Amino acid sequence: MNIVVLGAQWGDEGKGKIIDFLAEGAGVVVRYQGGNNAGHTVVIDGKKFALRMVPSGILHKGKKCIIGNGLVIDPKSLLEELAYLRKNGIKVGKNLLVSENTHVIFPYHNLLDTLSESKSKKGKIGTTSRGIGPAYMDKIGRTGIRMADLLNKRVLKEKLEKNLEFKNYILTRYYKVKPFNKSKLLREYTAYGQKLKHFISNTFPFIHEQVSLKKNILFEGAQGTMLDVDFGTYPYVTSSNATSGGACTGTGVGPSAINRVIGVTKAYTTRVGEGPFPSELTGPGGDLLRKKGNEYGVNTGRPRRCGWFDAVVGRYSAMVNGLTGLAVTKLDILSGIKELKICVAYRIDGKVVKDFPADMDRLARAVPVYKVMKGWTEDLTQIRHYSKLPQNTKIYLREIEKLTGVKISILSTGPDRSQTFILGKIWTR
Ligand code: IMP
Predict the structure, then answer these.
(1) pTM, two decimal places
(2) Residue of the nearest CA to atom 1 in ligand 1?
(3) Is the dihedral of CA 343, 347, 352, 356 positive or negative?
(4) All domains in the chain, ordered by first residue
C-alpha cells in the first residue's frame, strides 16, 4: 500500500505529525518537494522535534527515509538538521538516502530571494527567504546544480562558473550588491559533498524495488495544495508541486503505484505570507484562533493569518489531488468557541460560486458565504475515539465530509503522537 500525505490547504496543517503517526506502518518514507522552507513539527511523549527536509519517518526506528529528487536542498541547513537529530538521540545513517538528482541551494539563491522580495513594492510574495524560488528557477531553467555534482569537482566548477557569470551580473548591476567568489563557494560546497556523500545515491531503483516488493511507502508532501505552483493562489505560492502529482515527479514512481491520497487539513484555516485568503478573520476572531492554536511559523516564527474552514478550498483540493481521505488536525483548538463558521461558497460580483476560481483577480473579490454551526465546550485533548466526541463536534465533522465529498480517515486532538486516532482503513485494503 502506497500513500501520499499532503497539505490540503495553505501548508502548516500538521502534516509532520500525521506522517510520523502513519510511518509506524510504513517501511519507507519519501519526501517529494520543497526544502527548508518547510517546518514539520512532531511531538513524542511531550518532546518536540522540528524537521525541515528530513522525512518525519526518521523518528521511527528501522524506517528508510528518502529525500526525493523533487526537493531543493541547502546542504548547510541539512547538515545542521542531521546534527540536531543526532543530538536528540535520533539515529541518522543508512536509514537516510538523498537522491543524487536533488537540486542544491546556494547562497546566491537566498540572496536573490531576499533581494527580489525587498525590491518588489507591490506583489511581494512573503517568501521564507530560503532561496527556494531562485533554486527551482535554475532547475527549470536547466542551469541547476544537483547533489551528484557536489561529488565531482570538475563538473561543480564548470557549473558554478556558468551560474556565477550570470548571477554576479544581476547581483552587481541590477541589485548593486557584492558578487560571490567562485573559489570560496567551490571549496565550501565540495566540503558539503564530502560530508553528505554517504547519503547521496541513485534512489530510483531502490524505491522501484520497494514498490515491486509491495512494501508500504509513505510519500510526504510539504507546504500545501493552495501553495502549489500550478494549482495554488499563483503567484502567491511556493515554486514546487505540493499536490499529489508531485509525489510522482519528485520521487520517480508512476501514478499507478499510488493507492491512497490523504489530505491533511486543519479544522479551521491558516496561511503565512501574502495572497488571497477568502475566509480570513482579520479582527479578534483571528487573534483568538492564533492564540489558541499557537499559530506561529515553526522555523520562521512568523504569525500565521487565521480564518474559518473553507470548504470551497476543501472541494478543490479533493479534486486536484484525488483525495481518498482527510486527516483533520487541531480539532481541539475549536473547543469553547460558541459559534463556528464554515465557508461553503464565495460571492463574486454578486454571484454565488462553489468552484474555486482559477482567475486570481476574481478570487481577490470573493466574499465568503458561511454556514453557521454550533460549537462545543468540551475539552477534546483526551479523546481517543470518534464515538466519544461531543455531538456538535460530530455534526461539524460530518459537514466537512459532506461539503468536501471526502471521508475523514484520521483525527488529531492535540500535538502529541498519542493524540491521534484512525476512523477508516489506512494500510489495509
Ligand atoms: P517560499 O516557499 O519560501 O518561496 O515561499 C512562498 C510562499 O509559500 C510564502 O507565502 C510562504 O509563506 C509559503 N510557504 C513556504 N513554505 C511554507 C510552509 O512550510 N508552510 C506554510 N507556508 C509556506
Answers:
(1) 0.96
(2) 127
(3) negative
(4) 2-93+202-422 (3.90.170.10), 103-196 (1.10.300.10)
